[in-house]
Amino acid sequence: MFKVIEKRLLAPDIWMMNVEAPRVARSAQPGQFVIVRVCEKGERVPLTIADYDREKGTVMMVVQAVGSSTKKMVAIEEGGSLPDLAGPLGQPSEFVKEDVGKLKEKQILFIAGGVGAAPVYPQVKWLHEHGVGADVIVGARSADFVLMEEELGKVARNLYIATDGGMAGFHGNVTAMLKELVENRGEKYDEVITIGPMVMMKFVALATKGNGITTVASLNT
Q: The pTM is what?
């Protein structure tokens, strides 16, 4: 059993859950995920490891309640437990294996859309802890759906918020924000890492291709 020690609503139907999982926390790396089941015959739900604390033995997940399994998951209150949590699974982010000195020479930009902010955060945090600065764009359809702004603000070199209606931050989508940074503000990037809805990543890749910027997109759907 994996005890839920913290649960917080981040946005409508999107919850943060911090769970005691010492073995997972000890070996987790940015870019990896866990698989969770809410009951013995329940669906196997893959969730990004949004953060981990090796000393406390905790793992943080961001859960969007969209189906029966995730709705049951977020119904578990603090002090309750998840019966099954397996991980860490998957390959860590590629830069974990790179030379830190070479990483420090790069200008890196992360572009997150919606719940994509959850997998972006541990990557930017890892870079920050190793002395590597990275800029971040977080896009959302409105201010209510901007995720992990406070957490990312502590580890990003520069954090840019973009909302469709302009209620928070830049008025426009993430590709418009990227264009603003590169074409109007003179920012130069060697690499872009984008995580979010497929259509968003498609247009990010088209925009970065036009500017000759190496781009990594997340295809973990």
A: 0.87
Give first-to-last CA distance, the chain, whole Å: 27
- 3-state SS, residue 127: helix
Q: Rounded CA gap, 3 and 193, in Å? A: 33
Strands 45-48, 84-89: pairing is unpaired
**29-60 as b/e, with b when 16 or more CB fall inside 10 Å?**
bbbbbbebbbeeeeeebebbbbbbeeeebbbb
Q: How far is it, in rounded angstroms, from Cα 27 to Cα 90?
A: 12
CA distance linking residue 67 with residue 176, whole number of Å: 32
Q: What tens digit of pLDDT does each residue of 156-165 get?
A: 999 999 988 7
Cα–Cα dist 164/65, whole Å = 23
Contact in structure between 156 and 136 (CB atoms under 8 Å): yes
Helix and strand tally (H, E) in the chain? 7, 14
Neighbours of 206 (CB within 10 A): 11
Q: Read off the pLDDT of each residue in 172-198 and give the average, rounded to a whole number.
A: 90
Residue 56 CB-half CA count within 13 A: 13
For 45-97, the pLDDT digits (tens) are 899 999 999 999 999 999 888 888 889 888 989 889 888 999 899 888 888 88
Which alpha helices (H) appear in the chain, and where do they start and end?
22-27, 68-74, 100-104, 117-129, 149-155, 174-179, 198-210
Query: How far, in Å, are 65, 67, 115, 191 from residue 72 at the CA level?
Result: 8, 9, 19, 39
